[in-house]
Amino acid sequence: MSEIIQPGTVVFAGAGPGAVDLVTLRCRQAVGEAEVIVYAGSLVNPEILQWRQGGCALHDSASLSLPEVIDIMVSAAKGGRKVLRLHTGDASMYGAITEQMNALDAAGIDYQVVPGVSSVFAAAAALKAELTLPGVSQSVILGRRAGRTPVPERESISSLAVHRTTMALFLSVADMDGLVAELLAGGYPPETAVAVVYRATWPDERIVRGTLENISRMVKRAGIGRQAMILVGDVLKRQGELSRLYDPEFSHGYRRGRQDRAEKGGTALLTALPPVEELFGGSVAVYALTAAGCRLAGRLVRDLPGASGFLSRRGAGEVEVPGCTVFPPGEFSRVVEENWERYDGHVFIMAAGIVMRRLSPLLRDKTVDPAVVVGDEKGRFAVSLLSGHIGGANRLARQVARCAGGEAVITTATDVQGLTAFDELAGRLGWSIENPEMIKVFNSLLLARQSIGVSCPPELFQRFFAVDDCLFHCSAGELSAGGEGFQGLVIVDGKPGTVFDQVPVLKIRRPRLVLGIGCRRGASEEEINTAATNALALLGCNISQVCRLASIEVKRDEEGLLAFADSCGCPLVFYDAAQLERVPVPTPSRKVLATVGSPSVCEAAALLAGGGKLLLPKQVCGRVTVAVAAEKDG
Ligand code: SAH
Predict the structure, then answer these.
(1) Are the CB atoms for 160 and 166 separated by under 8 Å?
(2) DSSP string covering 491-546, please?
């Protein structure tokens, strides 16, 4: 066997999760060759060191600072010795090897990396789990919660959780309450399976299995506060529960109904891209004045759904930027004024001061002003400046940050505290708030963690309110008792004119909905019904809230679609490809464009027929696609 460590060089090796026989043969050989070993004493099993040769110097990095570790490695390598740096698991995950490699580069010392078995796989093995189960999740997010090492906003647990994939979380067990709150806020249902594996593959390994509802308590009871891997997702469900998951009658967040199973051997899924929580859903104007700003604006216009650009001639130069209008210097104020009410959102790539001075005469209040986001020309930050909730600026800021590769700056207190404000829900879901003067009162109640009753259909409560443990479903009886016992009462679609004088009340009215539908030739009424029902369920709604259906002209004779429209008693309108093609949508598809002549059917048709905002982007369910828009002023 050839040498692993050349004299005068360093090898970084993953020493595996703990068990000695989970060290790779290559790592084992390196231990035998090394003349100097620096190892992470807290997690690397010291038994591994028995393979070292006589005279090998040992250093436990647990008691050393980074400069000390580097010092040891550099001077040993410079002295022509073979140096081995042992990390736990695999060194590429939270191994902090980059700063060590940089220092070796600076010192002109060569190094190699040897892979190891990461604790994420040791934990999965301990649970006998497959992390990628067809029909449940096909991706794994490896992540961590912010601790002493910060985590970029766009990677916060709650923003990753919106994907509802399997998640494997390192370094995050110390505050399980906080972690669970973020996972729920991101959208995992409370019954999602979670397992915590403490010291996988060590003799004192312990496994705690539960759901998001009870895992925190169980972990505390087990006294686990460190050295544990947290795995989240229904791939962990045990056989009995899983077969229920696969049962055709069993409707679940990840797979719904039996029709979609008929196709593709039962792997059709209801997929949502992007998730409701992230969708801005309206038209956007992007402005820039400088050359760097114009370049970024061009990128945003290309990548943000529904965006148009407005660039100063001075910054844009003579180059044509697709989707952008160029205005002469000095015309900026006029352009903004003209656009102000035409667009749902405005993104300014320039100094916040310029924006504030231009906008101040235009502002009315947060229930009617459009979203305003300000970004710097390097795309590092996207600041949600105005109308964060109802106007959707927080969501828009997150989308801009994602396109620009930067961070969203969100300052609304509820969001900062990981809570979802009522006016944020209203903004996302197209609800109107009948007494907006109460928004402030209710957000204060939320922040003070007071108990609030919500009177609404149970499925709506389950979908959007149940994650917050200060919100309670208010029954008809409790409502007629005036909401006694609650500090506040939220009434969704209440009877007009009812007076409540015991507690503060927030009155919400939901819009009527328009369904855009696309389907393949021959899709049955039942398939379309399932797709529509499932899509509406994502909004906590059902068919009774739908006032209109819309599709593309070529479907005018599609029997299943006509029968579905008949059965729900809604008018069905058709648009031709040329009309649909002009509507900017979040989920355009080249394949759809090639087949029917418009990049979108369901989203564009819903928007055209509704006139309001898109509430749910394209959902694919077997052979049917569905999108939901709000009816304007309805
Ligand atoms: N590079 C390592 C991770 C280092 S960060 C790897 O690939 O596994 C340290 C974190 O890893 C711990 O906080 C814990 O979350 C996880 N971890 C490391 N060893 C573990 C083990 N044996 N069992 C469970 N988790 C472990």
Answers:
(1) no
(2) EESPPTT----SS-EEEEEPPPEEEEEEE-TT--HHHHHHHHHHHHHHTT--GGGE
State the CB neighbour count (10 A cutoff) for residue 441. 15
The neighbour count for residue 101, using CB atoms within 10 Å, is 15
Residue 116 CA, closest ligand 1 atom number: 7
Q: Which ligand 1 atom sits nearest the alpha carbon of residue 91?
A: 1
Which of 30-44, 131-145, 182-196, 234-248 is the least confident region?
A: 234-248
Residue 123 falls in which region: left (phi positive, over 0), alpha (psi -120 to 50) or beta: alpha
Residues with CB under 6 Å of ligand 1 are 17-18, 43, 87-90, 93-95, 118-119, 122-123, 170-171, 197, 199-202, 227-229
Query: Which pLDDT does position 634 carry in this prediction?
Result: 47
Q: Are residues 595 and 495 in the same domain?
A: no
92 plus 135 within the same structural domain = no
Atom of ligand 1 nearest to the CA of 95: 1
* Cα dihedral sign, 554-560-566-568: negative
Contact 370, 280 (CB under 8 A): no
Asked if 128 and 55 sit in the same domain, the reply is no
* pLDDT above 50: residue 171: yes
Domain that holds residue 229: 120-237
